[in-house]
Amino acid sequence: MISAIEWVPAGVADPSPKKYELSAAEVELIEMMENQQIGTGQVEETIKTKPPKKKNNQMKIEHNLPADLRMDEYSSDEDENDAARGTALGHLLVDEGDANELLNEPDDEEEDEGGKRMKNDDDMDSDDSDDDDLDDVPDTREYTPLDVEGLQNMGISKAVDGSSYMDFPADGDDDSEADDVQIRPDDALIVTAKTEDDFASLEVHVYEQNSGNMFVHHDIPLPAFPLCLAHGDIGPTGGAGNFCAVGTFNPGIEIWNLDVLNALEPSCTLGGENTTMADELMRQSVLGSKPNTKALSSQTGLRKGSHEDAVMCLSWNKVHRQVIASGSADCTVKLWDITQANTDSCNAGTFSHHKDKVQSVLWHPQEGTLLATGSYDRTVALLDARGSQKDIRKVKLPADCESLAWDPFSPQHLTAASEDGTIMCWDVRKFSDKTPLWSKVASEYGGVSDLAYNPHVPGMLASCAVDKTVTIWDTYNETEKISNGPPQPCGNKNMNVGKLYAINFYPSSPWLLGTAGNGKELALWDMTRDNSIQKRFGGRVATTTTTTSEKPVEETVDDASKKEAFEAMMSGETSAKPVELESKSKLKKKKKGSKKKKAHRAASRQL
Hints:
607 residues; alpha+beta; 4-stranded antiparallel beta sheet; 13 helices; 29 strands
């Protein structure tokens, strides 16, 4: 099962990924070992200067075995008794008479009358044969010359540059391995959160756009079942990189470095279990001191500001790129500053405006402090991260919220998909009217699980459902030249990967779409040669290849205003809102009437 997918924008990934990267804890342990002078040289010196063990200092073992079978006892005078043991063994294997014959066997050498040893005649003949002189024998061996033309052509003899025929080329295994993991400029990377049986992992897929080949580049094992993903380019140290935030059934948010092939632990964790006690025990064991377990016993449980239940949704801010929003099954929405990871100040704010599990959170692509949230309490909320909880606006849905999407070409339009198959869109400038701009039943036989706008083609909307299909919608109004719906279906395709749970457009190409579900496989739809899609949307492709969300922060907002907005958002101070929402005085009173909700089929007939 693949529960979430996330594209990596072109140019973000390292072309030559690293095999391994030391974590902050490992670097700290190495520094501590250097400070304590615990190194290989010192250990070897200690071993060399270690005093010899004393004899007869072995522990005695009590047993009832006979003396001949006591194999665990060794005598210190073993060398002295070897001859006696050999004689006793010889008597067991050879009869006494045979032994005497062997002992009385004549020797090859004879003694003369003076007691001196003399050699036999055979030995004298063999010595004489060894002294034969071979200097007069001519050498008839022939040698093949090395510098022949044939050997040069085969690369065996001396080369043109003068190198010897023994200078073989270096082993190319290292080069071939480096080529296998190399990321080329035309490669498209997509990350999937996959679970198979009891094993969960992040799989980084590479799609070669020129050849159409797709393969798993590397995978990262996960400790728990993954629920959501979010990609960002700012790491815990504040530097640029290629990172992926993962939400699981655990209350912590793991940040993984996708440029490390053999990553064993995340770069950092936002919230989650408090590992202070385990880290301190590791440090004390390295230093060789006894830890104070009583003082560390209080530093257990969850970290300060952490979620208390599973993390169901994530959104990485594209304007304030160090900020992450998360929604949880504990009915809260939290803001995180990744540069303050593993500190008490990493949780910048908490909102509790929903009454049920938070299924979707999404930052505005241009206004970096505007956040949309959707919940199982059948509401969609709009909040300013710099304001208070009193300023939050809500609208009702006919069913549980499944997904949210901002229109990149009409940034005032917010679209939501619900469990009953309905897609609704609002103009956030009139959010308090609670009247959608348009509403459409996208799937009558299965709920819409996810939707996404094409960042390069105005009015192009894609949705996926549990009926195993992807539907392309057109919300563009040719008369007004704006994407304001209602959407018109333009194509439907069965992706043959089971029920679909996630869908997303590649941010660096206008015609590449990825989707996945419970089929354990990733499916891509390349619309380049789809005639019906090209006929309807081919002429609308934006002239710029870089979307607003991909532009550097310096190009989207002013540095001074960006810093001011970020500081206000992190401190929770109220300031001017980026989107002018209507004041509370203009809110209309709710009309009295039946509270019975209309079925989505009835809503479709009204349209």
